[in-house]
UniProtKB/TrEMBL annotation:
It comes from the Bacteria. This is DUF2642 domain-containing protein. Pfam families: DUF2642. It comes from Amphibacillus indicireducens. InterPro entries: DUF2642.
Length: 78
């Protein structure tokens, strides 16, 4: 079987590949999903949120934002 993927938005696909295994926020028409980006495919992404995978179609993505990871020192925690 010889399948050829057609990328509707190659720029989004490449940008998401650069965020693989990072914490992100994704806005869809049904709301936002925040979690770890685990997989990027030509037609969908997989975001792990609260231990569950969320499969989001590329065509449903409105925007994507990398989530800042806050690094605190021991002094700030006290």
């Amino acid at each position: 079987m010889n399948e050829k993927w057609n990328l509707n938005d190659p720029y989004l696909y490449e940008a998401l590949n650069g965020l693989l295994n990072q914490s992100i926020a994704v806005q869809t028409p049904r709301g936002s999903v925040r979690g770890m980006l685990r997989k990027v495919m030509p037609d969908h992404i997989v975001v792990r949120m609260g231990g569950a995978p969320f499969y989001i179609r590329m065509s449903q993505i409105i925007w994507v934002k990398p989530e800042a990871v806050r690094i605190t020192s021991e002094l700030e925690e006290r």
